[in-house]
């Protein structure tokens, strides 16, 4: 599988980067890790949008993905433990779920209710850290929470201005996916440690 060759490709690219220079092992390892992250993300993106293209779901996937990313940027949340797991999860949440709900049109009061619940959860539970990236700095957590709330309000406001019911549903789906990724119930069900900053 391609994902199994990523470390080898990353090492090859890193050696090319430092071709004309001597570099210590630590610096080489840091750059190699960055290249691996880049390759994994590119591979994941290609896989997700190829799957979306095969189902004729490019614009639907893009709407869900963008609304999710805008809020996730500052609220963080769970990551899959492996790159393969991340790719499979991404295909499910950004392609399969939009395919299922692509024709769903919610009533006005349902949209308002779901939006309010999303904003409430973002305000309570963001930012949500992981074992690998604990957010020890209380001031930084406060800033990230404020930015997460602001981003969510902006996305919801834009959604309310849109007349297309399908687009509204897809935007809400992207926001709900992010809420699920930061919610303590999700951490509990997946047996992942929550509030890692408190374990310092």
Automatic annotation (TrEMBL):
Job of this protein: May be involved in the proteolytic processing of a quorum sensing system signal molecule precursor.
Membrane topology: Multi-pass membrane protein
EC number from the UniProt entry: 3.4.-.-
Organism for this UniProt entry: Listeria newyorkensis
Location(s) in or outside the cell: Cell membrane
Keywords associated with the record: Cell membrane, Hydrolase, Membrane, Protease, Quorum sensing, Transmembrane, Transmembrane helix
Protein name: Putative AgrB-like protein
Family indicated by similarity: Belongs to the AgrB family.
Keyword Protease set for record: yes
Transmembrane segments: 48-71, 83-101, 107-127, 148-164, 170-190
Pfam families referenced in this protein's UniProt entry, alphabetically: AgrB
